[in-house]
Design goal:
Blueprint (H helix, E strand, L loop, with lengths): L3 E2 L2 H15 L6 E3 L2 E6 L4 E12 L4 E11 L4 E12 L4 E11 L4 E12 L4 E11 L4 E12 L2 E11 L4 E5 L3 E4 L2 E4 L2 E5 L5 E4 L3 E3 L4 H10 L1
Antiparallel strand pairs: 1-3, 2-4, 3-4, 4-5, 5-6, 6-7, 7-8, 8-9, 9-10, 10-11, 11-12, 11-13, 12-15, 13-14, 14-17, 15-16
C-alpha cells in the first residue's frame, strides 16, 4: 500500500477539507497542540496530541491525545484524561481511555470510568462501560457502582437502560436504599418507580420507624 507522510503544515491545510469530505455526511472538527498523520489509498490516520479535542455531530471529546483512523475516519481513539459529552442524550463521561465507532455509535470506555446521566441524575462508575448511543444502553463491568436519589447500587456486572430507567445487576449485586439493604443473585431496579425485584438467594434488612415498632408491639 502506498503511503505518504505529510508535514504538519500540509496536514493543517488539507485536514479540514479531508475530514469534512471523507467522513461522509458527518462533519468533524478538531484542535490540538500538535498534529501528525499518514494517508493511504483507502484509509487515513491522524493523531492529535496535547489538549486534543474532537467534535462530531453526536459527541464532543477531549483528551491528552486523540487518534482518528479507518476508512472515512470511522474510529476515534482517545487516551489520557478523557472527557466526553453527548448533548442530545445528556450523557457525560470521564475515563482513561475510549474508543468510538462513528458508524455503530458505540463508545467503549475503560479505566476509571464515570458516566453521568444528567437528565435522570444517575451517576455510574466502573472499570469498563460500553455505551450505545442508538439504544441508549450502557453495559458496565468490574467494580460497578451506581448512585441515584436514595439508591446506592453495586455489582460486578450491570446493564443500564436509560430510556426505560431500568438497572439489571449480576455478580454479588447489592442495593442500599437509605437504611435498607437488599442482596440476591440477580437484582432489577426501576429507577423511576423505585420498584425492586430480587431473584436467587435473597437476603436483606429493613429498618422500621419508631412508630411502626410501637404499633407492632401493641399488636402483640
Amino acid at each position: 500500500m502506498r503511503r505518504t507522510r505529510f508535514t504538519i503544515k500540509e496536514i493543517l491545510m488539507a485536514a479540514g477539507f479531508l475530514l469534512c469530505f471523507t467522513a461522509g455526511a458527518e462533519t468533524i472538527t478538531f484542535s490540538a497542540d500538535r498534529m501528525t498523520g499518514t494517508a493511504g489509498d483507502s484509509s487515513s490516520r491522524t493523531v492529535l496530541s496535547g489538549s486534543a479535542a474532537v467534535n462530531t455531530e453526536s459527541m464532543s471529546i477531549t483528551a491528552d491525545s486523540i487518534e482518528l483512523y479507518g476508512e472515512d475516519f470511522r474510529y476515534i481513539l482517545a487516551v489520557g484524561s478523557v472527557t466526553g459529552k453527548n448533548p442530545e442524550s445528556e450523557m457525560d463521561f470521564t475515563c482513561g481511555r475510549m474508543t468510538y465507532d462513528r458508524e455503530t455509535k458505540i463508545a467503549t470506555l475503560e479505566n476509571g470510568v464515570n458516566l453521568i446521566d444528567i437528565k435522570n441524575e444517575v451517576n455510574a462508575s466502573a472499570e469498563l462501560i460500553e455505551y450505545n448511543q442508538e439504544t441508549e444502553i450502557a453495559v458496565m463491568q468490574i467494580s460497578v457502582s451506581l448512585k441515584q436519589k436514595d439508591n446506592t447500587c453495586t455489582a460486578s456486572y450491570a446493564i443500564y437502560r436509560k430510556e426505560e430507567q431500568i438497572l439489571d445487576m449480576r455478580g454479588n449485586p447489592q442495593v442500599v436504599q437509605g437504611n435498607d439493604t437488599f442482596r440476591a443473585q440477580e437484582i432489577s431496579l426501576n429507577l423511576e418507580t423505585q420498584e425492586i425485584t430480587l431473584d436467587g438467594r435473597v437476603r436483606g434488612s429493613v429498618t422500621t420507624t419508631e412508630k411502626q415498632s410501637e404499633d407492632a408491639d401493641e399488636q402483640q
